[in-house]
TrEMBL record:
Catalytic machinery residues: 257
Database matches in InterPro entries: Ald_DH/histidinol_DH, Ald_DH_C, Ald_DH_CS_GLU, Ald_DH_N, Aldehyde_DH_dom, ALDH7A1-like
Taxonomic source organism: Undibacterium rugosum
Keywords, ordered alphabetically: NAD, Oxidoreductase
Protein name: aldehyde dehydrogenase (NAD(+))
Group of enzyme by EC: oxidoreductase
Description of how the protein assembles with itself and partners: Homotetramer.
Family: Belongs to the aldehyde dehydrogenase family.
Lineage: Bacteria, Pseudomonadati, Pseudomonadota, Betaproteobacteria, Burkholderiales
Chain ranges of the Aldehyde dehydrogenase domain: 23-483
Record Pfam families: Aldedh
Length: 503
């Protein structure tokens, strides 16, 4: 049974659901715990066939001029603009984030398409001075091959777009294995992409963007396949370590975007009004299920007793409920497993002398089978080892500090290294935080929270977060291979380093 609203949304987005229906993968609404649709999964031989198709597409696409490739991404961006409301709503219905964030996710896809279109005319290489007379050196960037994208449930469509928009202008084809918890948003995105392809013309080969519906096994099969030249995997550190091992064994490239455990430091000179808003959005947005969610807050002694009671008051009044309703700021957790993980982390915090505020299940009428919670604040006496672990739920630990070095040490003490921020109006503190001796994360912000990145910067983190970079800046280079070319236009053959080799 497919829910009637979902059916209407999917047909508006151009999906022929009958092509996907089956009994292997069940999309369950985090809003009310009821089934949205049941789908078939691709068999191992179908996965093989999709990769083969994408590989054949790459062999053609690599010769299409890059600005022409950009035109396809431009058309896809147009489809996203036209269908933003429907796709945004579908994201909310399947992933549970509030409608504003569902729409924001689609906007992020549009933004990366715009970025990639510009990039399609800027895939620059260098010209390098040669040490030999009558010689010239240069670098070129060529397409790398088939890019395999594995994505997580919490950004069910934007992460694919970050990868695909860049990969496509770079001349690669893409195979996507979305989260088994959010297959419908992936199917809808694929349908919108195919609309763009149909408007583009015959130089877009079939198989340019393939979609695999399946669980972990299909993802693992894709990672093993030698025709996948680059694996871009987003999800838990556990998953990333498995993927990294396989990629290392077959010496292929990977971009790993894994778990985060992000902190903020609130210094004595912080603008507390701004800090309160940034903390709340970063800690409770997407019900604490962002990789960049604020999970650890270090507050200076001098402002602790002003800030923390304010936060408690705000947390007590946060509207928790159906994410489709305009007044809601906190939607549901993805499922029961997420709720259980949250409760066990809170129990551990209590056993470590943590003072827990919030965290209880919230009843939402008509949604009794879903998992809504009041986001929790946990005042901790110090940073404990249990705080080193990412619980993918709205738990924010708060610890007092008196010395900035201590707070920076705590920021860096955890295994993950995704995002971080400091609120301060003291220039020395701000500069210190972003310096080589400051935060060790891939993202270090000043006077904004750790979440809500823009597509223009390179996104990703260090250590257990995997070290990958996606999206803006020069992240495109990961989707291409570099060749160094030396040209000799002289009549002699001098060797580099002055080596003499007379025959
Ligand atoms: P998950 O690791 O359970 O699943 C992510 C994806 O990996 C799914 O598509 C899954 O099928 C696939 N997968 C799992 N094991 C695999 C394997 N061995 N081989 C190949 N594929 C495999 O993660 P989740 O619960 O969907 O998402 C939450 C996690 O993702 C959190 O840890 C969060 O921090 C992280 N995340 C990170 C980023 C980032 O950019 N750093 C962004 C979003 C989410």
């Amino acid at each position: 049974m497919t829910s009637p609203t979902i059916q209407a949304l999917l047909s508006e987005l151009g999906v022929q659901l009958a092509d996907y229906q089956g009994d292997a993968i069940h999309s369950i609404s985090p809003i009310d715990g009821k089934p949205l649709a049941s789908l078939r999964a691709d068999s191992a031989s179908e996965v093989q066939a999709r990769i083969a198709k994408a590989h054949a597409a790459y062999l053609q696409w690599r010769s299409v001029p890059a600005p022409r490739r950009g035109e396809l991404v431009r058309l896809f961006g147009e489809e996203l603009r036209t269908h933003k409301a429907a796709l945004g709503q579908l994201v909310t219905m399947e992933a549970g984030k509030i409608l504003q964030e569902g729409l924001g996710e689609v906007q992020e896809m549009i933004d990366i398409c715009d970025f990639a279109v510009g990039l399609s005319r800027q895939l620059y290489g260098l010209t390098i001075a040669s040490e030999r007379p009558g010689h010239r050196m240069m670098e070129q960037w060529h397409p790398v091959g088939v890019v395999g994208v594995i994505s997580a449930f919490n950004f069910p469509v934007a992460v694919w777009a970050w990868n695909a928009a860049l990969a496509l202008v770079c001349g690669d084809s893409v195979v996507w294995k979305p989260s088994e918890k959010t297959p419908l948003t992936a199917i809808a995105t694929h349908a919108l992409f195919m609309k763009a392809v149909s408007r583009f013309g015959s130089d877009a080969p079939a198989g340019l963007a393939e979609l695999i519906i399946g669980g972990r096994d299909s993802g693992a099969q894709m990672v093993e396949d030698k025709r996948i030249a680059l694996v871009s995997a987003t999800g838990s550190t556990r998953m990333g370590k498995q993927v990294a091992e396989v990629c290392a064994r077959r010496l292929t490239r990977s971009i790993l975007e894994l778990g985060g455990n992000n902190a903020m430091i609130v210094a004595p000179s912080a603008d507390l009004e701004m800090a309160v808003r940034a903390i709340t959005f970063s800690a409770v947005g997407t019900a604490g299920q962002r990789c960049t969610t604020l999970r650890r807050l270090f507050v200076h002694d001098s402002v602790y007793d002003t800030l923390v009671p304010r936060l408690k008051k705000i947390y007590a009044g946060l509207p928790v409920g159906n994410p489709l309703e305009k007044s809601t700021l906190v939607g549901p957790l993805i499922d029961a497993g997420s709720y259980d993980a949250m409760q066990s982390s809170l129990a551990v915090a209590k056993s470590e002398q943590g003072q827990v505020f919030g965290g209880e299940r919230v009843a939402v009428t008509g949604c009794e089978a879903a998992y809504y919670v009041r986001p929790s604040l946990v005042e901790m006496p110090t940073q404990t080892t249990s705080m080193h672990h990412e619980t993918f739920a709205p738990i924010m630990y708060i610890v007092r500090y008196s010395d900035l070095d201590q707070a920076i040490d705590w920021n860096n003490e955890v295994p993950q290294g995704l995002s971080s921020s400091i609120f301060t109006t003291d220039m020395r503190e701000a500069e210190r935080f972003v310096s080589a001796t400051g935060s060790d994360c891939g993202i270090a912000n000043v006077n904004i929270g750790p979440s809500g990145a823009e597509i223009g910067g390179a996104f990703g983190g260090e250590k257990d977060t995997g070290g990958g970079r996606e999206s803006g800046s020069d992240a495109w280079k990961a989707y291409m291979r570099r060749t160094t070319n030396t040209f000799n236009y002289s009549h002699a053959l001098p060797l580099a380093q002055g080596i003499s080799f007379d025959i």
